[in-house]
Write a structure and sequence with these properties.
InterPro entries: Fatty_acid_synthase, HotDog_dom_sf, MaoC-like_dom, UPF0336/Enoyl-CoA_hydratase. The chain has 156 residues and is α+β, with helices and mostly antiparallel strands. The chain contains 4 helices and 7 strands, in the order ββααααβββββ.
């Protein structure tokens, strides 16, 4: 298990940055399809995907959105953060094997513990794949929590 310390509202500063990275694997695509119910063949069927402009399977767009959520929830501000809203523009396809890095930047501190955060996702070639912004409710006090260890999940 790993411990994570959040950044409470009072300690957040405009311009503050954090990042979170993950490589997109086959199991991620399968699990996301199962969880979301999105079985679009462009994500799951290599023969179908070969006939698309991408020429190969691509990850679900909202998979990148889920990584943004993980970055906000586990990195900055961290545990205790509540999402209020998120905008996203998908600028480039994400393919299996891509390593995605979510880069967060505090844009504005608002009243009542609300915060605007730039949420951008880049691939391993430093190409922007998602450009967005979140509004969150930041934790009021600092705390260190133990992240829950998830059970092993298998496909098939």
């Amino acid at each position: 298990m790993s411990q994570v310390t959040n950044v409470p509202y009072g300690d957040l500063e405009v311009g503050q940055k954090a990042s979170y990275s993950k490589t997109v694997e086959e199991k991620d695509i399968q699990l996301f399809a199962a969880l979301s119910g999105d079985h679009n063949p462009v994500h799951l069927d290599p023969e179908f995907a070969a006939r698309t402009p991408y020429k190969e399977r691509i990850a679900h767009g909202m998979f990148s959105g889920a990584l943004i959520s993980a970055a906000v929830a586990c990195t900055m501000p961290g545990p205790g953060t509540i999402y209020l809203g998120q905008t996203m523009q998908f600028t480039r396809a994400v393919k299996l094997g891509d390593t995605l890095t979510v880069r967060l930047e505090i844009l504005e501190k608002l009243p009542k513990f609300r915060v605007r955060i730039a949420t951008r996702v880049y691939n391993q070639r430093d190409e922007l794949v998602v450009d967005g912004e979140a509004e969150i409710l930041a934790p009021r006090r600092q705390q260190t929590v133990e992240l829950t260890r998830l059970p092993t999940i298998s496909i098939g």
